[in-house]
Amino acid sequence: MHQQQRAWFRTEAVNPEMACEKISKASISEVFEAYYERIFNYVSYRTGNRYTAEDLTSQVFEKIVAKYHTFQPGRRPLEVWIFTIAKNTLTDYFRASQRHNTCSLEVIEEKDSKLSGPEATVISKESALNLIQALSALTDKERQIIALRFGAGLKNVEIAKIMNSSESNVGVILFRSMKKLKKELEREDHSEA
């Protein structure tokens, strides 16, 4: 595809007002390919369920297609706009379900699936449960920032825009959250010994 046609989703369009008018099915397909895995990982980290994550990720992309005409390239990068939609979709989901799981066992199992044998499986599941317990000690905002950073792979500046916070505040929260997680995991290790 021609470089200028793809520019709208990287917010590099020469004329931002015209960028959204050039969106085609092919360019929406490119956005899907570029962001699906990251959105899915983020949603999966927050919901703790692969099937729910798939459904919510689909809802996010439905909203992107339905609302692409509201995207303003000069106001914020597309990535921030997309993850704001994902964050709002998750907020609606949690309000409706009143569930606040934070980490998917399935995601952890997939990442640890390189280990083999029953001992490795037991260790992997114990690690996942320990991580879930440790994450439950964090605030919702801390879990949200961790999910955006490690689930979606966003940078602090992008997270700050999504969370309506400063970049330095996100960095401090992330640092303190990771410190809390480490402390919680070490405490759980010592209590098991």
Automatic annotation (TrEMBL):
Keyword Electron transport, does the record have it? no
Q: Which UniProt keywords apply?
A: Sigma factor, Transcription, Transcription regulation
Task: Domain (RNA polymerase sigma-70 region): give its ranges.
Answer: 32-99, 134-183
Q: What is this protein called?
A: Sigma-70 family RNA polymerase sigma factor
Query: Which residues fall in a coiled-coil region?
Result: none
Give the source's domain of life in one word: Bacteria
